[in-house]
């Protein structure tokens, strides 16, 4: 089997990465094909055999890591071409959605309330046994 699983749609929440410029901020790394779950069930044979299918797009596949699973969001044709050439992995930009959501939640969470400072002592109040000078 080429992929871990064949999915149909994106089971993860919307992440907001929709432009090539946003994805370009993620450095590519190698991902094993056998670790990927696809988000598309259909393959366009014309795109598969086209030499310039990535001419106007990103050279790297887009993968979303969510809840322990690597989802191939964009790059199905690149991944299948890699498999047909006998490769075990491909270069992809991997968005760690678990980490991104945790960072967003931390930014939106209210700052922990700091307790107010203790009130100053009332005028004329004694400070306990300090400074009594008795032995």
Structure description:
By secondary structure, the protein is of the alpha/beta class. The protein has a single domain (5-12, 20-108), classed as Conserved hypothetical protein from pyrococcus furiosus pfu- 392566-001, ParB domain (Alpha-Beta Complex), CATH 3.90.1530. The protein has helices at 20-24, 45-49, 76-84, 97-108, and strands at 5-6, 28-32, 36-38, 61-66, 69-74, 89-96. Strand 4 (61-66) and strand 5 (69-74) form a beta hairpin.
CATH top level is Alpha Beta
Number of strands: 6
The main sheet comes to: 6 strands, mixed
Shape: elongated
- Rg estimate, integer Å: 28 Å
With strands numbered from the N-terminus, the spatial order across the biggest sheet is 1-3-5-4-6-2
How many discrete domains? 1
> What is the first-to-last residue Cα distance?
89 Å
Give, in order, the helices and strands: EHEEHEEHEH
Q: What is the CATH fold-level name?
A: Conserved hypothetical protein from pyrococcus furiosus pfu- 392566-001, ParB domain
Fourth-tier CATH superfamily name = Conserved hypothetical protein from pyrococcus furiosus pfu- 392566-001, ParB domain
Report the sheet-strand fraction: 15-25%
The CATH architecture name reads Alpha-Beta Complex
How many separate helices? 4
Show unreliable segments: none
Query: Structural class of the secondary structure composition?
Result: alpha/beta
Mean pLDDT over the residues? 82
What is the percent of helical residues? 10-25%
Quick gist of this model?
This protein is α/β, with parallel strands linked by helices. It is built from 4 helices and 6 strands.
